[in-house]
Amino acid sequence: MPNVTFLGPFVSRRRPDSKAEWLRGQPVEVSQEWLDLYRNKLPLQCFLIEGDDSGPINDGNPDSGWTKKDIAKWVKASGQSVTGYAR
User: Does residue 70 belong to any structural domain of this protein?
Assistant: First the structure.
């Protein structure tokens, strides 16, 4: 089972699934299903996630593995145009 630990910067933070709060530095055991559902609500600069066995994550947003061609396709799919180089 994965453990999620809130790192801060505040003493506590409201959980995305209830009115309960994360307390800084206290690990909380969650199910893999819960983690997969709420992963996008846990920014990595504020949370430490241990024991996650879901494999690589593709959230649909560009990352360092995307090529220029992949990014251009993603931009066009959102209704924008890609022209030349940005200055």
Answer: no
pLDDT of residue 57: 58
Q: Is residue 10 part of a domain?
A: yes
What lies within 8 Å, CB to CB, of 51 at 6+ separation is 1, 2, 3
Average pLDDT over residues 9-27: 95
Query: Quick check: helix, strand or coil at residue 62?
Result: coil
Mean pLDDT, residues 29-42 taken together: 92
- Which residues are registered as beta bridge partners of 57? none
Indicate whether 33 belongs to any domain: yes
The count of structural domains within the chain is 1
**Residue 63 reports pLDDT greater than 80:** no
- Domain of residue 47 covers 1-53
Would you call the peptide bond into 62 cis, given omega within 30 degrees of 0 as the criterion?
no
